[in-house]
Amino acid sequence: MLSGCLLYFLVILAMHNVHAVLPPRVDTLTRLDRNSLIEHYFHLGFDYSEILGFLLLCHRIQISLRQLKRILSSNGLFRRRAYSSPPQVITAVERELRGTGSLLGYRQMHQRLRCQYGFTVDRESVRLILQSLDPDGVEQRSRRRLLRRQYHSKGPNYIRHIDGYDKLKPYGFCVHGAIDGYSRRIMWLEVGRSNNNPRLIASYFLACVKELVGVPRIIRGDQGTQNVNVAAIQRFFPYDDQDDFAGEKSFLYGRSVSNQRIEAWLGFLRRSDTEWWINFFQDLKDQGLYNETDLFQVECLLFCFMPVLQDELRRVVQEWNLHKIRPSSNESSPPGRPETLYFLPELTGTSSYLNNIKAIDIDVAEDVCCESPDTDVPDTFAELAQIIMDEKGLEMPSSPQSALNLYLELLSSIEDI
Fold it and tell me: Once rounded to an integer, what is the mean pLDDT over residues 40-53?
């Protein structure tokens, strides 16, 4: 039955001239007559009160609860009677299991059968059908474990994944990282003022190239202008002509959700580190100590916290690269320390796929495509902050608390100028 409150609500609305603005989805239904609308909302799974609400608010059709039940009955629409044919339901479930429906539990499958197929079926029947047709999937979902595509990498430097991390971007900090697909070694993890500057992203890449004097066989990154210089450099360097992934194929564009190695690791980064920073900066906002529309506060926050955050990220990388990864069923994801797996691939029966690069080629790429991270910092504010620090005997911070103290001191001094 309709609750007393909802009945009262509908009565009050009916007494007034209600002109609801139709949502796009509802607006397409205006050509249907009253009974067709009722049938449509019934098959979407709405209950009596919701159907009456849609009719009144979106279509300006006013009927009583008794009238609604009579219309449903005359059209053979029942929730607990006239169930759909079991063979039809089973066939539909089998069809869904061949696609994205394989990820659905019985509740979501029940909803899909009602909405997409117009079936009348109870949840328990759907649960039993899934248990019979897809017992392995039911077991995996009950354990919150899903089968995913097997990741494959032949050895270190076979493929490297790069991506930006923008969870701290609301506070001005943009993190960018890279991970080796085989060893899971973090190749770089840098924080700057932007992840959209292709010259800055290329500088992270070239710094790693200089350190290793080589590039990976393949780099995978998101589509977007931020990666165009990295792609150009990767494709510019000379390769073995016999390599199927030489030239254009040495950099692969793809969606962020498909870049699973770096996406998974950035999830770990949030759980293990940046969640704290997000809460820290949000607390500053809540306390009125930071306003993203105040230019001085924005620049002061970046000046004080950027080096502290970068040091923190380097510690995270070091700890990760030295920790032991547990065994898994995927042979392309061997257990061990990322640092060892990367630099000593022979211990796991493989070899490095690093392509050695001449220093002159690295210099050319750097001159044409790169920008130093230091050039991304406004000199004017840094000079002003340094003058204040020299006058007051202040030093650059080494911890979040000392960075906060410097931040507050600089803002106070600037306000007094």
Answer: 79
- Report how far apart, in Å, the C-alpha atoms of 157 and of each of 5, 124, 274, 414 are: 65, 50, 27, 49
Cβ atoms within 10 A of the Cβ of 98, count? 8
Percent with pLDDT over 70 in the chain: 83
CA–CA distance from 95 to each of 101, 105, 130, 147, 148 (Å)?
Answer: 8, 15, 12, 19, 20
Strand, coil or helix: what is 63? coil
Output the six-digit token pair for 138: 């039911």
| 3-state per-residue secondary structure call for 126-158 | HHHHHHHHCHHHHHHHHCCCCCCCCCCCCCCCC
**What are the φ and ψ backbone dihedral angles of 243, each rounded to 5 degrees?**
-75, 125
Tens of pLDDT, residue by residue over 88-134, are 989 988 888 876 677 778 887 887 787 778 788 888 998 999 888 88
3-state secondary structure (DSSP) of residue 251 = strand
Nearest to 152 by CA among 332, 325, 351: 332
The secondary structure element, H or E, covering residue 219 is strand 218-222
Q: What is the C-alpha separation between 241 and 354, in angstroms, rounded?
A: 15
Paired tokens of 254: 């793809």
Distance CA 365, CA 378 (A): 25
Report the chain's mean pLDDT, rounded to a whole number: 83
Cα-flanking dihedrals φ and ψ of residue 177, to 5°? -140, 170
Q: Is 174:158 a contact under the CB 8 Å cutoff?
A: no
Tens of pLDDT, residues 160-207: 999 999 999 999 999 999 999 999 999 999 999 999 999 999 999 999
Lowest mean pLDDT among 272-286, 287-301, 322-336, 382-396: 322-336
Nearest-angstrom CA–CA distance, 403 and 306: 9
Of the CA atoms within 13 Å of residue 128, those in its CB half-sphere come to 7
**CA distance linking residue 145 with residue 124, whole number of Å:** 22
- CB-based contacts of 163: which residues, under 8 Å, 6+ apart? 176, 177, 221, 222, 256, 259, 262, 263, 266
